[in-house]
Amino acid sequence: MADTAVKEVKKREPLLGKKERKLLLDPLNDNNPITVQVLGICSALAVTSMVLPSVVMAVAVTFVTGFSNLFVSLLRRRIPKQVRMIAQLVIIAFLVTVVELLLKAYNYPVYKQLSVYIGLIITNCIVMGRLEAFAMANKPWQSFLDGIGNGLGYGAILIVVAVVRELFGKGSLFAGTPIALNIIGPNADYWIDTSSNPWFSWYVNNNLMVLPIAAMFIIGILIWIQRTVNPKLVDVS
Amino acid sequence: MSNSYILTFTFILTAVVALSLTVLRQATEPMAEKNEELFKKKAILAAVKDYLPGGKSIDELSGDEILSLFDEQVQDLIVDAAGKVVAEDGGENIEVAKVWKEAPEKRQLPVYIYKHPEHTCYIFPMRGKGLWDDIWGNIALGPDLNEVVGVAFDHKAETPGLGAEIKDNPKFAEQFAGKKIFDEQGQFVSIVLKKGGAAPGDEHAVDAITGATLTSDGVTAMLKDALSWYLPYIESVKAGKK
Question: d(Cα A38, Cα A43) in Å, to the nearest integer?
Fold first, then answer.
């Protein structure tokens, strides 16, 4: 008796079956929220001048997409459709405020650095996009994975962009963290000192890289690379 | 779905959310307040960074060390526009951002005296406008109230990598140490951020930030305005010393 019961449960809901893995991993490449769905561009341009705030932003957005998907999916049959957007926004705003309060209490410098962008997660189209497109019509566990997957897909692009921008814009990586690296710059604090190294005397940090517009170019190039490597993304029509 | 269901649903949802946020806020507020206080005091002591105990930099000091250092060695006066000391302490509770909006003659602002055994420093909070929004900072003068010990700037919304360098680039702030705010005749001249770089040996100028002319001009204006406001107090301390 007990054996059959276990089997039945297993058959009904594998915790991380093929479908669940797809939900989690698809947004990292084939269905990336930034490069394929083209959502959440605004904050991807704004916070990616350095790696540290990008990582914090990625974690915060992943938390918000994951749990808002979970809560909305749990309530999906109870949310009246006339007020579903408002109900979704209340849940998103709740989670964002939780992130803000926790950062304020546990990591004040990063809170100061991200300042207004934490609050702006509320308006990040990825969050509401996933609620409307997925959580309103799917079970809680799958919705949660979909949220986490999309958060990670967003975060992955953020971090790639931030690494490029920080490296070429400031010559450093992970500045502000214990593993801060000073790679290339005009004085002896950097590994490659452009003022004394004969091979790199021509090199100067690119000021364009620290401006949001550089992120636009980098995201464009990422989309180009992704579509070259992954031809099924190319729109044939 | 009926209207009453929609109303009840909305009401319960918002009530639950409001209640949980209130609880969380109550729970985290003491920590957030301590962080805020620490952040402010750190910004003040960052201006005297060469004179911190044990030759440490401000980031090497722990939060508790900074708070106790501030309690023990910093006097927070309140001065008025005529340079009179209004109160001997309590300056740290003044919200500089708010007071700065008042008419200059009505302002009462804090002056922090850092009682280093050999090198008393006077720290003056400043406020001004950058390119996009407010900028602010603290400037520390040495015992002669002329030579700059150090500065620490911050900003609300300057462009990262350009205007934001006033805070992010330690090399920018380091330029100020050793500069003088009075010329040889004792006339107030402030310190100017020079586009294209200050002339070597110029005691009243530092290099402006490349690509951030408007923020640099904002810092120049802030230094001039703020230091002129404190000038009566500076003169009265100098007169008292002679």
Answer: 12
Looking at residue B28, its pLDDT comes to 93
Closest residue in chain B to residue A176, using alpha carbons only? B168
User: Of all residues in chain A, what percent carry a pLDDT higher than 90?
Assistant: 33
In whole angstroms, give the CA distance from residue B214 to residue B224: 15
pLDDT value of position B26: 94
Lowest mean pLDDT among A216-230, B151-165, B200-214: B151-165
- Over the range B213-225, which residues count as b (16 or more CB within 10 Å of their CB) and which as e? eebbbbbbbbbbb
Asked if B162 reaches chain A (Cβ–Cβ under 8 Å), the answer is: yes
Listed by start position, the domains of chain A span: 16-163
Distance of alpha carbon B132 from the chain centroid: 18
Which chain A residues are Cβ-neighbours of B17 within 8 angstroms? 90-91, 93-94
B108-129: average pLDDT = 90
Q: Are B177 and B148 in contact (CB under 8 A)?
A: yes
Sheet bearing B74-80, strands edge to edge: B85-87, B74-80, B108-114, B121-129, B134-141, B148-155
